[in-house]
Amino acid sequence: MTAVVETEGLTKFYGKRRGLEDLNLVIHPGEVFGYLGPNGSGKTTTIRLLLDVIRPTSGRVTVLGTDPRDASVRSRIGYLPGELFLEGRERARDYLAFLGAVRGGVPRTRIEGLAERLEADLSAPMGKLSKGNRQKVGLIQAFMHEPELLILDEPTGGLDPLVQQEFLTMVREVRASGRTVLMSSHVLAEVEHVSDRVGIVRAGRLVAVEDISALREKAVRRVEFHFDAPVPREAFENLAGVRDLRVEGAAVSCTIDGRPDALIKAAARFTVVHMVSAEPDLEEIFLTYYSDEEARHARAGVEESA
Amino acid sequence: MPALVSKSLRDYRRGLIGWTLGIGVFMLVYLSVYSSIVADPDTYGPAALAKFPGPLKDLMGGLDNFTSGAGYLQAVAYQMFGPLLFTMCAVTLGSQVIAQPEERGTLELTLTLPIDRRRLLLERFAALALSLLGIALITFVLVAGMASALDMGVPFVNIVAAHTGLFLLVLFFGTVTVTVSAATGRKSLSMGVAGAWAVGGYVVETLGRDVAAISWLRWLSPFHYYLDGRPIYQGFPTGGYLVLAGATIVLLLTAMLAFDRRDVGV
Predict the structure, then answer these.
(1) What part of B 116-155 touches A (C-beta under 8 Å)?
(2) Residue ranges of the ABC transporter domain (chain A) (predicted)?
């Protein structure tokens, strides 16, 4: 099986500013790859390199087996930009027809079918589309020619929850048909339900590539318990995976790594009135598991600038 | 027609309609007062205008023979106001080829279509050239029609020659805008370079006829290759027009190579 995306030492500097450094990444056929990182970490830089919008400073990249500079490969890619700009008085339907024609022809019924699924309004002039509708038009154009590789930069921004669900269904369908998806996000929650693997990029460097199930094990969750009476601190101390413990009267809050089992069993000894468990925060994964990595790069950064 | 050419024409359509109307109405209004100018040689005749210094008359559009048909056409349509308006139009439309969609972010998706960079630029340029050609044809019909209706007595072929030159001149400035955009992606810079070259070129060519200190600069002025052969009086100045067309092609090739090499939208 040849890789759908393969990079070797892929590096991009904007002048002296680092966009991406030494990226080695392989994406396999038929997988959904989540590309995670905070804003400005290098996600969009990577994606633009894959699409030949910008050129690498050094390193090598192949997409669907060829150099992205070969324009013909782009008819086999569907791309949703992180920020999609559409303007003018042309109707969205006509713009989609144009994009379809250039990519080798897309049946009208497929465009209408996608529009129906996403509840997109294609009759409005593009300059007057709402943010949500604009994003839907972007998704339709990315999916409509049934590309072998979908590259979606922050795909769910601006979509309401029902449409997000429909979008995730579409992504699963793409995977089921053996095609490949690369989607970026700065929120783990957006990609964790569909991704097979995730790559985490931070300050221009890929710091980890993980199986999604492995990452979830490592995820840090903030948990709060409220009891009907004050509880002793000792009951929650030194539990496996529990950190940042705070006990204030009848309230206990902490973060947990991995399994919450020990904490739940400790709490079960008292009367729980209320419990809050926040979604794992990607930022906290960075801070806990990759803090060593980060510190190393921070030092390297200081040395570079010195 | 390639899909990107027709799509680009749709992108330019709004500006195109506006400029066609603007330039057309201007020509119509100014040419229609020709009869009253001819009827009043005491104010507008060569003797009356002799009091102005030559360079000033040149700078103001070549008022040397305002009451003759050819002189009037030259002053109004072909030396100053015509090229001025039409160049503004070409530069504005030229900035829509690359720089404006790049700055507004709409170019990114176009760039990820299976069209290579050079062809993308060429097809969007082709739509610009077609747009300018359309305006040139419409305004040509207007000028030729007015000249014949008002008995200006200018040979038809000379109007064809002058209008061809006008088209080549503005296509050149439009291409300058495209080339700077292709190399830098910056709209204001590309329009500034083309605008400065146009104004500078005009001043150097008109004043340079009489002011020796700057006359050597005339070879840098696109206007030189258009005006120096006096097409409205003498017909096609073939050599000059070939220089304009050749320079446009060189600029276009430069634009294609420059655009093919750089990062877009960063």
Answers:
(1) 116-117, 119
(2) 5-228
